[in-house]
């Protein structure tokens, strides 16, 4: 058996023993792959894993010279009414959730105001502080759209098509823009392709799609954000740990777990079991 299949079988046993509501599993170890399914291989909302795709979009645009992630977002939004201190907020601040603007997540945030980005940036900031909110990623992609047009359309030839992910769907807000922090529909194996690209520092089949240093920042530019295991530090869409790896983590158990040369992709329908399964997988990879 290959290392990927051995790891797959151990993860399957853990998932089935714990009762975690997984839909699909894809394991990459070195160049070996192995898969398992508990439900039909249909595209589902990968939730906050989409934040990682938004980070890739910003990295691609920066590499093309279309944006500077460290320029104030106010430069891209002339005429906008900004809250006190927001004039210094950058795209990097939005992607790392450290703008300090207070607008926590809610199920109705996309429809509570005529324009979520306008509302977000109109609020004051006392300085850099972490708050995890889809409003931050949504606003980041609103800023990016000022330079690249529709972000989903921008990514099609630059990311999705090279990865062989065709006819993608991304949920949109009432204003017609991608909701950014979620709403991207992918199959387990399609999410795993994004995982391989990230593991390989932006290279796909010999072609560079994303700058390597930008990929590295997804799991190195840590900001302190809490004390719960696996939620102490956040970077550009990546959570540190638990254990020696890092992950992209979406609601209801959507996971891209990175440790060494291994990438584990899981799609699921189980919000509360994801942390324990992630910790178990990290331990398995480390053994």
Description:
The chain is of the alpha+beta class and 287 residues long. It is built from nine helices and 13 strands. The protein has helices spanning 3-18, 49-63, 91-95, 116-122, 134-148, 151-160, 188-199, 212-217, 274-286; strands spanning 22-29, 32-37, 44-45, 169-170, 184-186, 203-204, 207-208, 223-224, 233-234, 239-240, 246-250, 254-259, 262-268. The strands form four sheets. Strands 2-1-13-12-11-10 form a six-stranded antiparallel β-sheet, sandwiched between helices. Strand 10 (239-240) and strand 11 form a beta hairpin. The protein is globular. The mean pLDDT is 96.
SSE blueprint:
Blueprint: H1 3-18, E1 22-29, E2 32-37, E3 44-45, H2 49-63, H3 91-95, H4 116-122, H5 134-148, H6 151-160, E4 169-170, E5 184-186, H7 188-199, E6 203-204, E7 207-208, H8 212-217, E8 223-224, E9 233-234, E10 239-240, E11 246-250, E12 254-259, E13 262-268, H9 274-286
Antiparallel strand pairs: 1-2, 1-13, 3-5, 4-5, 6-7, 8-9, 10-11, 11-12, 12-13
Helix pairs in contact: 1-9, 2-5, 4-5
Summarize the structure.
With 287 residues, the protein is an alpha+beta fold. 34% of the residues lie in helices and 17% in strands.
Following the backbone from N to C, one meets helices and strands in this order, namely: HEEEHHHHHEEHEEHEEEEEEH
Residue stretches low in confidence (pLDDT < 50, at least 5 long) are none
Main sheet summary = 6 strands, antiparallel
Strand order of the largest sheet: 2-1-13-12-11-10
**Assembly form of the protein:** single chain
Q: Summarize model confidence as the mean pLDDT.
A: 96
E-strand count = 13
Mind telling me the C-alpha Rg? 18 Å
Structural class: alpha+beta
Query: What is the overall number of helices?
Result: 9
Helicity range:
25-40%
Beta content: 15-25%
* Distance from first to last alpha carbon: 17 Å
Global outline: globular
């Amino acid at each position: 058996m290959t290392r990927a299949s051995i790891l797959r079988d151990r993860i399957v046993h853990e998932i089935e023993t714990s009762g975690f509501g997984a839909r699909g599993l894809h394991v990459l170890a070195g160049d070996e792959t192995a898969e398992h399914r508990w439900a039909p291989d249909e595209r589902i909302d990968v939730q906050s894993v989409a934040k990682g795709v938004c980070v890739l979009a910003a990295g691609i645009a920066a590499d093309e010279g279309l944006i500077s992630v460290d320029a104030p977002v106010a430069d891209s939004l002339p005429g906008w009414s900004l809250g006190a201190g927001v004039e210094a907020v950058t795209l990097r601040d939005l992607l790392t959730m450290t703008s300090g603007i207070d607008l926590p997540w809610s199920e109705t945030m996309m429809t509570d105001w005529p324009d979520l980005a306008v509302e977000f940036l109109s609020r004051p900031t006392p300085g850099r502080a972490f708050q995890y909110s889809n409003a931050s990623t949504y606003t980041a992609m609103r800023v990016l759209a000022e330079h690249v047009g529709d972000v989903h359309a921008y990514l099609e030839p630059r990311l999705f098509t090279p990865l062989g992910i065709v006819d993608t769907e991304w949920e949109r807000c009432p204003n017609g823009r991608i909701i950014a922090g979620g709403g991207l529909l992918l199959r387990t194996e399609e999410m795993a392709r994004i995982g391989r690209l990230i593991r390989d520092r932006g290279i796909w089949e010999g072609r560079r799609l994303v700058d390597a240093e930008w990929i590295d920042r997804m799991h190195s530019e840590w900001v302190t954000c809490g004390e719960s295991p696996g939620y102490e530090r956040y970077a550009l869409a990546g959570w540190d740990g638990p254990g020696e790896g890092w992950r992209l983590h979406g609601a209801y158990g959507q996971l891209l777990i990175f440790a060494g040369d291994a990438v584990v992709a899981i799609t699921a329908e189980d919000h509360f079991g994801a942390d324990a399964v992630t910790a178990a997988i990290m331990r398995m990879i480390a053994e």
